[in-house]
């Protein structure tokens, strides 16, 4: 069984002691009840990961000796997911799923048809929630690198971001029902660069004006499955009683 992964600001060298305190220490010591002699894994969310053995525990604090330490390179291609703001009850779930799928950066997008609106203090509050959700999901999925949560963009700023990414050699894809290619095929057939940007629209869909702006900036519309997949047939009627 893979040891539980905990976060620390820094991961020390082999033979040194790493300390988990604050919320992470309480989670390790009180919720999971780790004990001296138990193996745990500690990472800083920026590639440094260490296998450790717990030496001491107390209320809200765990100390462990570093046994092995590695620096995991950032995975390639680097994947940016631009996520239109979902309804509040689905917002953090969207971030969790993107993190578990391997996103390296998640950019919140205030699309035209978003029901949710981030304005004023909601912007910082929303980004904090997304950061916490990404951190928790990265730990749960044992990721060495936590995704970055970008600044909120509107549709104009998103088109500029797409243009800059494409200019730099990235593939830019928009999930849309009018896509002529499937997502996987589009990634395979696209530029062989080290970056991929994927735009995920709101529940109401990407507006025509937004799609025009994104395609003009160099993005390609794609569908998640193979294009033209027919709907499944309805279930047969139950036999008459």
Automatic annotation (TrEMBL):
UniProt cross-references to CDD domains, sorted A to Z: RsmE-like
Chain spans, region Disordered: 207-241
Subcellular localization, as worded in the UniProt entry: Cytoplasm
InterPro entries referenced in this protein's UniProt entry, alphabetically: Alpha/beta_knot_MTases, PUA-like_sf, RsmE, RsmE_MTase_dom, RsmE_PUA-like, tRNA_m1G_MTases_N
A Pfam match: PUA_4
Keywords: Cytoplasm, Methyltransferase, rRNA processing, S-adenosyl-L-methionine, Transferase
Principal location class: cytoplasm
Domain Ribosomal RNA small subunit methyltransferase E methyltransferase: 76-223
GO CC annotations on file: cytoplasm
Pro residues compositional bias, start-end: 227-241
Reaction equation(s) it catalyzes: uridine(1498) in 16S rRNA + S-adenosyl-L-methionine = N(3)-methyluridine(1498) in 16S rRNA + S-adenosyl-L-homocysteine + H(+)
Positions with biased composition (Low complexity): 216-226
Membrane-crossing segments per the record: none
Superkingdom, taxonomy of origin: Bacteria
Residue stretches making up the Ribosomal RNA small subunit methyltransferase E PUA-like domain: 20-66
Any one GO BP annotation for this protein: rRNA base methylation
Family: Belongs to the RNA methyltransferase RsmE family.
Functional summary from the UniProt entry: Specifically methylates the N3 position of the uracil ring of uridine 1498 (m3U1498) in 16S rRNA. Acts on the fully assembled 30S ribosomal subunit.
Protein name: Ribosomal RNA small subunit methyltransferase E
């Amino acid at each position: 069984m893979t040891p539980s992964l905990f976060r620390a600001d820094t991961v020390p060298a082999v033979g040194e002691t790493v300390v988990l305190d604050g919320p992470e220490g309480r989670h390790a010591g009180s919720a999971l009840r780790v004990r001296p002699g138990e193996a745990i894994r500690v990472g800083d969310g920026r590639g440094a990961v260490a296998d450790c053995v717990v030496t001491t525990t107390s209320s809200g604090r765990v100390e462990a000796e570093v046994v092995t330490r590695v620096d995991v390179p950032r995975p390639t291609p680097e994947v940016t997911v631009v996520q239109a703001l979902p309804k509040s009850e689905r917002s953090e779930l969207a971030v969790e799923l993107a993190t578990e799928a391997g996103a390296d950066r998640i950019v919140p997008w205030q699309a035209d048809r978003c029901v949710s609106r981030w304005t004023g203090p909601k912007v910082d509050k929303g980004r904090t929630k997304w950061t916490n959700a990404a951190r928790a999901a990265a730990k749960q999925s044992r990721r060495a690198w936590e995704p970055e949560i970008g600044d909120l963009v509107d549709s104009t700023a998103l088109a500029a971001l797409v243009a800059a990414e494409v200019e730099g050699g990235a593939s830019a894809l928009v999930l849309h029902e009018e896509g002529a290619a499937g997502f996987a095929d589009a990634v395979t057939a696209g530029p062989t660069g080290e970056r991929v940007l994927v735009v995920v629209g709101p529940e109401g869909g990407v507006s025509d004006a937004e799609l025009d702006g994104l395609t003009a900036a160099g993005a390609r519309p794609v569908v998640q499955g193979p294009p033209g997949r027919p709907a499944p047939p309805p279930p047969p009627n139950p036999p008459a009683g």
